[in-house]
Amino acid sequence: MADEELEALRQRRLGEIRAEHGDPSADPSQQEAKQREAEIRNTILAQVLDQAARARLSNLALVKPDKAKAVENYLIQMARFGQLAGKVSEQGLIEILEKVSQQTEKKTTVKFNRRKVMDSDEEDDY
């Protein structure tokens, strides 16, 4: 029985140390909540997407996880508000991807800051 108590103390102390150092795996309730949320997301996406669209979304998640997460959030939001009439096909997913890409498109601008130099072209070189 002393071994069980010792092991429980070790586990509790290990959890405290991880919590102090900001390790997200320290709190089991947070892990369970994240796992439940992931299961709910996967269930909703399985109901909303057909097989080809789901495969395309998983391929996108491998390459650009932030964009795939945005598309998943968009699809889940549409499903919750009843804006989807049936399963989304691969072509429908491509259209949604284009919408999300347009919304999150980063526009880069280049601004030239020309410095004025003491030497000008007006003066004659000798």
Automatic annotation (TrEMBL):
| Biased composition range(s): Basic and acidic residues | 7-24
Entry annotated with the keyword Nucleus: no
- Keywords linked to the UniProt accession: Acetylation, Apoptosis, Phosphoprotein
Locate the region Disordered: 1-37
Enumerate the GO terms in the molecular function aspect. Answer: DNA binding
Asked if the record carries the keyword Acetylation, the reply is yes
A GO term from the CC aspect: nucleus
Q: Which domain of life is it from?
A: Eukaryota
**Which Pfam families would you find in this protein's record?**
dsDNA_bind (PF01984)
This protein is called Programmed cell death protein 5
Give the species: Peucedramus taeniatus (Olive warbler)
Q: Which gene encodes it?
A: Pdcd5
